[in-house]
């Protein structure tokens, strides 16, 4: 296993359509996935796609809650390093709800920045695991967001390209100031 260098926005490997994996159980796929997981954890990311380590193959890894939150509980599905790790090869997404939600995203290939990105709130993803097993899961909230972000990498898409207002693309060092200013605006709006 090795920590790989992460490609940054502007490198062509991030802009191309990645190739399907012919055999998910091949030893070289297992070796690449091991490197991807080590790289993701080292970089403190919630997910990583193979093109981000200069391998244009349709493979993503991510950590997100596997199950949707129980109905009736307003539970935010937040990123948690203890969350189940998913390896997904040749993934496909089926959108379940037309509902769109804005949420903050970052990307290891766009270091230092955060952006407010619209994503579908609920979907089913399908693909294969390292043993060739079929994976099919329903995801919502943060889990659905991570899957959409990672699968976008396989189609040459980075999150700023999904943004509807680049005024919401900020340096993470300014996030606190940005949020404070936004909260103040809302407070004033309520007072008015
Ligand atoms: Ni990313």
Protein described:
The chain has helices at residues 27-42, 141-154, 175-191, and strands spanning 47-49, 59-63, 85-95, 100-105, 113-120, 122-128, 134-140, 169-171. The strands form 2 sheets. Strands 1-2-3-6-7 form a 5-stranded antiparallel sheet, sandwiched between helices. Residues 66-79 have low confidence and may be disordered. It has one domain (12-191): Alpha-Beta Complex (Peptide Deformylase), CATH 3.90.45. It is globular. Helix content is 24%, strand content 26%. With 192 residues, it is α+β, with helices and mostly antiparallel strands. The protein is built from 3 helices and 8 strands. Nickel (II) ion is lined by residues 107-109, 149, 153.
Question: What key attributes describe this structure?
Answer:
26% strand, binds nickel (II) ion, 192 residues, globular, 3-stranded antiparallel beta sheet, 5-stranded antiparallel beta sheet, alpha+beta, Peptide Deformylase, 3 helices
Task: Summarize the SSE layout with pairings.
Elements: H1 27-42, E1 47-49, E2 59-63, E3 85-95, E4 100-105, E5 113-120, E6 122-128, E7 134-140, H2 141-154, E8 169-171, H3 175-191
Antiparallel strand pairs: 1-2, 2-3, 3-6, 4-5, 5-8, 6-7
Nickel (II) ion is lined by residues 107-109, 149, 153.
């Amino acid at each position: 296993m090795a920590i790989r260098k992460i490609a940054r926005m502007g490198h062509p490997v991030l802009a191309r359509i990645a190739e399907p994996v012919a055999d998910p159980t091949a030893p070289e796929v297992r070796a690449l996935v091991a490197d991807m997981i080590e790289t993701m954890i080292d970089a403190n990311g919630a997910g990583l796609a193979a093109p981000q380590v200069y391998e244009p193959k349709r493979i993503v890894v991510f950590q997100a809650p596997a199950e949707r939150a129980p109905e009736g509980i307003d539970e935010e599905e937040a990123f948690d390093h203890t969350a189940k790790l998913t390896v997904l090869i040749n993934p496909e997404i089926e959108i379940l709800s037309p509902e769109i939600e804005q949420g903050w995203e970052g990307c290891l290939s766009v270091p230092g920045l955060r952006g407010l990105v619209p994503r579908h709130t609920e979907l089913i993803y399908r693909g294969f695991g390292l043993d060739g097993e079929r994976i099919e899961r329903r995801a919502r909230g943060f889990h659905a967001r991570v899957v959409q972000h990672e699968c976008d990498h396989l189609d040459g898409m980075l999150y700023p390209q999904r943004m509807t207002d680049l005024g919401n693309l900020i340096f993470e060092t300014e996030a606190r100031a940005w949020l404070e200013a936004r909260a103040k605006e809302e407070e004033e709006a309520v007072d008015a």
